[in-house]
Model the fold of this input.
Amino acid sequence: MVIEARHLNLTFPTDDGPVHALKDVDLIVEAGDFVSFIGPSGCGKTTLLRCIAALETPTGGSLTVRGMTADAARQARSYGYVFQAAGLYPWRTIAGNIRLPLEIMGYPKAEQAERVQAVLDLVELGQFGRKFPWQLSGGMQQRASIARALAFDAGILLMDEPFGALDEIVRDRLNEELLRLWQRTGKTIVFVTHSIPEAVYLSTKIVVMSPRPGRIAKVIESPLPRVRPLDIRDTPEFIRIAHEVRESLHEGGRHD
Ligand SMILES: Nc1ncnc2c1ncn2[C@@H]1O[C@H](COP(=O)(O)OP(=O)(O)OP(=O)(O)O)[C@@H](O)[C@H]1O
Done:
């Protein structure tokens, strides 16, 4: 198993009293899974992802990533992280942005160039390495930020609503591309989203969360095949799973 959380708790002390962002969260992610966290705003999705990335420290329970503490896993460069906004440096070219983590990690120059080209090809931006971020569309920028997270070939990709700001047509295309990339690379992906169709289309496992305190309301294992054309969304099976997610979201909300 790649990620294991047991009775994970996180309470933020605030001026208005403690905020229970995560309450008794149990989660298992297996190698090669595509896991989505879905739930209403404030239910702790980002906080849980940030705990896995060792960007937050839980106040209780245990969490291991590749059998290590989250901190050790971060130091071992176990994951790439994709943020809501592409966050590319405007003064660097696309290739320059993707190369940055490799420069920081001290990869030899020739290997940097090889890896940058390989991940640019992987996200179908092979011809755009010399462009600057402002010369690319929003969807292309987000693909570049995925390439940056893939550049050092970590086995885990953590993605926090990477397509949330994009229009539906671009989002559909990027969903399809991400699925192909996941199939080609065999990576383990943990993905935060607000969108039921996005969660159902992408995931092997859908983790439905509910707020106040943030906890897991239900884990739905998807019976859909791993290879999924976009029109799978019109099948009765897809619609049934989407319905199950929606019901679980409502049930989770009733505990408020
Ligand atoms: N550093 C912090 N200090 C205090 N409270 C915080 C902090 N970070 C998050 N919270 C609170 O913890 C709860 C969970 O936040 P989190 O961002 O994980 O939710 P989310 O499900 O990702 O929401 P969204 O979908 O809006 O991004 C919220 O009530 C939030 O206000």
Remarks:
- The radius of gyration is 18 Å.
- Residues 51 and 57 are 6 Å apart (CA to CA).
